[in-house]
TrEMBL record:
Pfam families: TraU. This is Conjugal transfer protein. The lineage of its organism: Bacteria, Pseudomonadati, Pseudomonadota, Alphaproteobacteria, Rickettsiales.
Amino acid sequence: MFPITIAGFKVVSSSMPDTNASGRLICLCPKPGIPVPIPGIPVGFWEPVRLVDVTKSPMCMVSLGGLSFGSATQKGMKDEAEGNAFYHIHWYVYSMIYWLEILLDFICLEMAAVDIAYLTEFDPLWSDDAKSAILNSETLLFQNVAAYQACIADCMSCSAGLLASDYAFWCAECQGMLYPFIETAAAHNGGVGTSVLMVSKFMAKMHRQLMLWGYYGYKGLCAKYPMPIIKKSQYRLQMTYSIPETKSCKSIGQTEAIWQAGKEFPVNGEDFGYLIWRKRDCCLL
């Protein structure tokens, strides 16, 4: 959850990088049943909101203890002969702060039960390059040296302890390119790094489909808002499988070279699970 800011001032610090606070001392937001906006205090924090599986086995629910609803023989390996990686994504609603009732007076907390929200096995855009162009027709604009060089520079800054750049929205920093929003990675350099790239690609795709929205900054104080281009600084990742990461989260695009050791191994260690943390700026009424 940390760092936590109140009225633009940091009250609980953290070693993790954070977005800029809204800078407002008060906020005004509508409240059901009251005809005029109610004044409140802006509060910023990080909340765990989603679980995500990254798996080569269709319908293998990694975050549900490996429960499988499909054939284990239908593995996603069609491109591995060419050096590419191929993964399915499973997306779960996981509103932990709301369930535990840690924060009671925020109007913008997500009130949702645990749920399987998305399975890419049923998404034709995830497995077909041509169809995916419906969502990301601008992909060709970033197939050049200048675009890749921007990603390299962003990788260095992100790995030095800064948040990923939202201006270079086509980059996944140290993991490569976010585009196109499909199930394959151009080069499979390791399961951990590739799984992080797949999660980043999927979240960018969900933003483009307006299934993920913006929640931080002054626009997010009262409610979520449309964000068709992902702002990577809004998210953190924490590995839950194969080897849980219990001490820290990772920024999108941060190099995996310093933390991937021992987290990928044959058979049971080839699928991955992550907890998604999201930055929230809310109005405490």
